[in-house]
Amino acid sequence: MKLISISILSKLLILQYLSVQCLSTQNFDFFYFIQQWPGAYCDSNQSCCFPKTGKPTTNFTIYGLRPNTNDNSSPSNCNTKSVLDKSKISDLIKNLENNWPSLSCPSSDGIKLWSHEWMKYGTCSESELTQHGYFQTALKLKQKINLLQILKNAGNKT
Predict the structure, then answer these.
(1) Tens-digit pLDDT profile for residues 102-157
(2) Domain boundaries, the chain
(3) Which of 12, 41, 95, 123 is the most buried (most CB within 10 A)?
(4) pLDDT (tens digit per residue) in 63-97
(5) The pTM is what?
(6) How far is CA 9 from CA 25, 39, 63, 155, in A?
(7) Which CATH class is domain 6-157?
C-alpha cells in the first residue's frame, strides 16, 4: 500500500470529525461523527476484547455521535431519566453490532456501550432525534462516509 502524505491524512482526519448541521435552535449546533480503527484502538488500550458477535470487520467502526456547539462545548448527560429502551432499536441491533461494536472488556453484546452513548450524548439530541433516530443517524453516516474507501482512493492518487 502506498504511503499517504501528511496533507491527505490531515484532510481525512478533518473529515473524520464531520459536522452534521442541525437546523433548529437547541442546546447544540451540530454533531461530531467519530469513527475508529478497531486494531488501533486495541493496540492503544491495555484491555480490549472483541464483541460476543466476533471480531469487527476490517473497516472503521463508529465511536460516537456527539452533539457540539459552535463555541466548542459538548453537552452531555442532558436527561439522566431517559434510559435506552432496547425494544426501540431492536431493528438496528444487528447493524449496530457490525458497525458500532463494543471493544471493552469483558466481551459484550454492545447494549451497555449503546446505553452509555445514549445517556451521555444521545439525550442531548432528544429535541431532534428519538432513540431510534439517534442510532439510525449514526448508522446512515457510517454508510455514507466510507473512510476506508476514502483512504484507498487517496492512496491511489499519490
Answers:
(1) 988 888 889 999 999 999 999 999 989 999 999 999 999 999 998 989 998 998 76
(2) 6-157
(3) 123
(4) 999 999 999 889 999 999 999 999 999 999 999 99
(5) 0.79
(6) 34, 18, 19, 10
(7) alpha beta
